[in-house]
Design a protein that fits this description.
The complex is a heterodimer of chains A (about 500) and B (about 325). Chain A has about 500 residues and is an alpha/beta fold. Chain A has 17 helices and 24 strands. Chain A is globular, with a radius of gyration of 24 Å. In chain B, helix 7 crosses helix 9, helix 10 packs across helix 11 and helix 11 packs antiparallel against helix 12. Chain B is globular and about 65 Å long. The chains are: A alpha/beta (about 500), B mainly alpha (about 325). The complex binds adenosine-5'-triphosphate and magnesium ion. Adenosine-5'-triphosphate sits at the interface of chains A and B.
Chain lengths: ~500, ~325
Amino acid sequence: MQAASEPIQELKLVGICKRFPGILACDNVSLEVKRGEVLALVGENGAGKSTLMNILAGLYQPDSGTISLNGEAVHFKTPNAAFAHGIGMVHQNFMLVPNLTVVENVALGSKNLHRFMNLDLNGARRRIKEISEHHELPVNPDAYIWQLSVGEQQRVELVKTLCFGAQLLILDEPTSALTPQETDDLLARLKRMTAELSIIFISHKLNEVKALSDRVTILRHGAVVFNGTTADHTPAELAALMTGHEVTLPRNESHDQSTEVILSVKALRARGDRGNLALDGLDLELRAGEVLGLAGVSGNGQRELADVLAGLRPVESGTIHFQGKNLTNHSPRRMIEAGLGYIPEDRHHEGIVPSFSVQDNLVLKDYASPKFSFSCFLKLGEIERNAESLRECFDIRCSSTSVATGSLSGGNIQKVILAREIARCPKALVAVYPTRGVDMGAQEFIHTQLLARRKEGVGVLLISEELEEIMNLSDRIAVIYKGRILKVLPAAIATREQLGLLMAGVVNE
Amino acid sequence: MNSGGMIYNILSLGVPFSVALLVAALGENFNQRAGIFNLGCEGIMSMGAFLGFLPAFFIKTGPLAAHVNLLGFVFAMAAGALLGLLFALVTVTFRASQGIAGIGLQMFGWGIAGTLSRHFVGGVTGVEGVPAWAIPGLAKIPFLGGVLFNHNPVVYIAFLMVPTSWYLLFRTPWGLKVRAVGTYPRAADTMGINVNRVRYQALMLGGAMAGFAGAYLSLCQAKMFADDIVAGRGFIAVALVYFGRWNPVGILGGALLFSLAQTLQLSIQVGGIKFPYEFAVMLPYVLVIVVLAFTRKARMRGPTELGKPYNREMRV
Ligand SMILES: Nc1ncnc2c1ncn2[C@@H]1O[C@H](COP(=O)(O)OP(=O)(O)OP(=O)(O)O)[C@@H](O)[C@H]1O
Ligand SMILES: [Mg+2]
């Protein structure tokens, strides 16, 4: 991949259509970007944003429509061709080979470093250094990708794409897995880069869109429904245009406290994937009928806590009591039977079986109950009826409940998981980043559902990095830091600044 | 026989015994690193053994007679590369299930080699094969000289393939591409790597090496051809790739361990030691299974997309 010969002054997409089996993902889409401009591309889950950008990056072939650069029609048959014209994309799922180092990943795509029987890793290292110093994106070139945190990987992705000589940068939901600090950082850097590059920016967070972009294009069901200057519109207006109705995120207003403790965790210690002590004497109490927000920068033990509560990770010491029963180190099955619902962080690998149909995923925890089976036979009719009613009540958008769940959009997969967990009438619900990568409409829906469960007396443990989400929904807020709970405070008196400090590990008393 | 002599015998026999396994497994390693699981290795080795044997069998006089062994290896490798190409066509281009296609290739290679051999060769006939060539100087070292430096030249070539494969895999652009397409083909694709081309290349190289391993069996080890000459070594080679965790050095260790167990087993039988021979024959296989079961799994190092065809326009 070499740098493009001439700078991109203007990029135009005209009438792009792309059909996947059973769905029109892009429906006659046209848009344009000029030099030094930031275009925000927004839309609900499954609106076709990633598909459109994959077409622009040469990964997918459009069924019809044209792409033109500086007034000249171009046709990208491969990602290479797009790169040769200076178009670089940071994909929604990172495109980094996990068992290679950062340098090797960069060298992989830099054809000019490929010598006969010899790989110029030092050349790649120099290039990385150059780029990362120029754009102030620190990376460690010799680390293996699998050792890096999500935020670091994000930085590596950016550096990699810039090393290949991108002049138009496509960023597909770059912030969805970043901490608030990392997000602010990234936005500031991108702002600086616009002096040299054009950017197409995809995000579900409209405040980011407001902060960064010059213009905004909204997609709905694959078609452009709006095109305008960002400064002229408020986030609320944009949200309404995106979903077709007004979006108001619900708030937990009634801070009345119940006292019945339903889940209590004492002096919990457990190890993370790399053998470190991720939970180091954690104490936590969840009451019935409350939302307990667990705030903290990710990587402080949230993931391990969720695993432990789901029975997926061994506890080294400490106890978990659920409704008075000791459930420490019990199997996931026992946890499920005890009435603990779980919305996992990684919805593709833990929440669903992607190749199973929506119907099957909806009974994944209850297939053996008398409701869905009779001796060793499944009651297929009942399973289908169950799916249809949940689909209606949770507004799961899919062409039919017998399609593979993995083919749904992120927001709809999340609704499938939510529907399954809630339909089981849990006593307590652990929700880990439940709205990550999910559009505004679905977010509103999920929040409403969580609050409705609270009303019914379910204890909800909400693990999130979004302070706004936590403050909107919680009765009490616990801050986790380095595997312990630093402090628990009532949501009514918590302030953003105070939580921010606590999340950074600062206790001032 | 004293025990020192027995150990010497086991070692000096075990080293050349390991060659066919080693080369086939190094070849299979390229396949697997690129994400393709080739169970057909056994079939390619059968073809290699037959075609390697053929020139030596037919050409007894004339100017070519001096080069029949070289010719045999060239034939075997060419046929192996062709079978690798065929396998690539089926599994990479047509995205057929690799396990099934591999079993098909195994039966195909084995069947064709046997049929052709019955047609052209008839009964079991020996050939002269590749003579031993002691490395001057080194072969004189007591003990080690006999174990390592007093074999036919193909043995030395095979052992040189270990560092060469390692270098190719970890220090060249091609090796980097191979590792990338076996782990995360979509990422490689977005970086402008032609995933299918790299997989074709890896399969052809792996096939050529399996053919080479087959020819070694008929020209250097058995010095004859019979249709069951490979006797499961192709499958053992596949297991050795896991055993060696996709690293040529580990594969060398596995190949040596297995063939030393094999020669130990033989010398138990030959030496008349009181031990039921059925168990002795089982020993190497049991050893491989036990070691495979108990080694730590290195999840992050191997090709995680092993066995999955790549389709650019497919989601997840
Ligand atoms: N490779 C594919 N095969 C089949 N269908 C696909 C494929 N890629 C996307 N789709 C479908 O096309 C539609 C658009 O998907 P796309 O990923 O572009 O949405 P998106 O706007 O990026 O959503 P999100 O915000 O969830 O990332 C969805 O309905 C999706 O299910
Ligand atoms: Mg997307």
